[in-house]
Amino acid sequence: MTSSPLLRFGIIADPQYADAEPWALLDRYYRNSIAKLEEAFGVLNGEDLSFVVTLGDLIDKDWQSFDPVLAAYKGLRHESFLMPGNHDFSVAPERLGEVHARLGMPAAWHDFSRGGIRFVIIDGNEMSVFSAPEGTPRHAAARARLDALLAEGAINAKEWNGGIGDEQFAWLEATLARAKAAGEKVVVMGHYPLYPENEHNLWGGERLLDLFERSGNVIAYLNGHNHVGNLGRHGSTWYVNFKGMVDTEKQNTFAVVELYPDRIEIIGYGREDSRTLPL
After folding, report:
1. Is a pLDDT exceeding 90 seen at residue 70?
2. Is the pLDDT of residue 97 over 70?
3. What domains are there in the chain, each with its CATH number?
């Protein structure tokens, strides 16, 4: 096994901050996430990392929740990539179109290269009943898709999941093809899990599984959303679901990911599992 990684980066999933009372039934402690983020940044700032990515659900609800959580991120010395989850759209309807900009994203879906690896951020909220106001064509299309999934008896036919549209899928397909032509390995990141089958999975996620298998260069898909975490392998792709930071009163969870030519090493902190994933 090679001893030096191609690059290292940090992972945080589902801080889901809000100035709200805990939800004891689900073991979620919304206010405590600021202190957990600060603790995580204290550790991550001491590491040599290319960047830190947060896999969605920075907030639980309310536009004003973004202020304290984004202020906490100013304490992170590394480059930060944020993406929305379903809860980040639990804001007033007139604010829905501002969420990506509030998170400082260049676009709802985008890609970048670090250390010879292509990183791709997808937006599984695009087709959802919460990301566009009622009465809009995008909301109506999402409602129709959810109704079709309910009629099929799909286990992920939930209002708190979402999917991607044809334009985004075509962009993803083209991005993977360009990376393959350039000889780049790819890591795709999104909020919603794709595999193994689970009630939290992206609507129509099977299309992405097939695409990744055809492409053959997607070494990993990283996500949050399912707070208990999960792990699977399909084709040559590892599917890693990181645990939710908002869960439990005091225990934290975050990770450092190391990419090697022959493996992925995940160094888990707190409740997050450490893993060695051979490529």
Report:
1. yes
2. yes
3. 7-278 (3.60.21.10)
Q: How confident is the model at residue 19 (pLDDT cuts 50, 70, 90)?
A: very high
Strands 218-223 and 237-241: parallel
Within 61-216, residue ranges assigned H as helices are 66-73, 99-102, 137-152, 166-181, 205-215
Cβ-based neighbour number of residue 249 at 10 Å: 10
The string of pLDDT tens digits covering residues 109-161 is: 999 999 999 999 999 999 999 999 999 999 999 999 999 999 999 999 999 99
Global pTM?
0.97
**One-letter amino acid for residue 10 of the chain:** G
CB of 269 within 8 A of CB of 40? Answer: yes
Backbone angles phi, psi at 186, to 5 degrees: -125, 140
C-alpha–C-alpha distance, residues 191 and 108, integer Å: 12
Do 168 and 205 form a contact (C-beta atoms < 8 A)? no
Q: Once rounded to an integer, what is the mean pLDDT over residues 190-206?
A: 98
pLDDT at residue 2 greater than cutoff 70: no
State the pairing for strand pair 185-189/117-121.
Answer: parallel
Torsion angle, CA of 215/122/186/200, rounded to 10 degrees? -80
Closest by Cα among 205, 209, 217, 119 to 177? 217
39: enclosing H helix or E strand: helix 33-44
Share of the chain above pLDDT 70, in %: 99
Cβ atoms of 254 and 269 within 8 Å: the answer is yes
Judge whether 87 and 123 are in contact, CB under 8 Å. no
pLDDT of residue 212: 98
Minimal CA–CA distance to 111: which of 173, 183, 58? Answer: 173
Assigned token pair, 178: 């360009």
What is the chain's length? Answer: 279
